[in-house]
Amino acid sequence: MQQPLSSFKGIMPTIGDGVYIADSSRLVGEIKIGADSSIWHMVAARGDVNYITIGERSNVQDGTVLHVTRKSAGNPQGNPLIIGDDVTIGHKCMLHGCTLGNRILVGMGAIVMDGAVVEDDVFIGAGTLVPPNKRLESGYLYVGNPMVQKRPLKENEIAFLKQSAINYVELKEEYLAEAE
């Protein structure tokens, strides 16, 4: 069976304690994953022309693509992909060279493009397109193509952002126990 981790230019992904990575996923190059996070089936993550950082207790669900923007004369730092703590990334999302804060839910099929910044405590609805270089303000629901700020989050929705991450920590523990 092929391993889900491989090097690029001699750099391997680094994995924190208690991380679950599905065998069918593929992580290449400069990727750092924090403790208790999970990478689910068929995720493709390429830290080849810049780096990817995933915080603690975050989960990247099935079929998601994670990539970065190359450094260039017009963009000397390029755009790494930075994902904070307690982030839930739904099935079949595309995150490309963007920055996500903490306690965020990215709905199924959403696309977040280069240079976008998502502050803490944000819901991004399923199928939403976040255009390049947009900033999503903390405490709101964003939906649409292109995205619009729909409304402030309710207290129970803000609480759910953390609970969603906890749910996936519990699930990945079950998967890790199965593998023993």
TrEMBL record:
Domain of life, per lineage: Bacteria
Pfam family, one: Hexapep_2
Origin organism lineage: Bacteria, Pseudomonadati, Pseudomonadota, Gammaproteobacteria, Alteromonadales
Name of this protein: Gamma carbonic anhydrase family protein
Family matches, as InterPro entries: Hexapep, LbH_gamma_CA-like, Transf_Hexapept/Carb_Anhydrase, Trimer_LpxA-like_sf
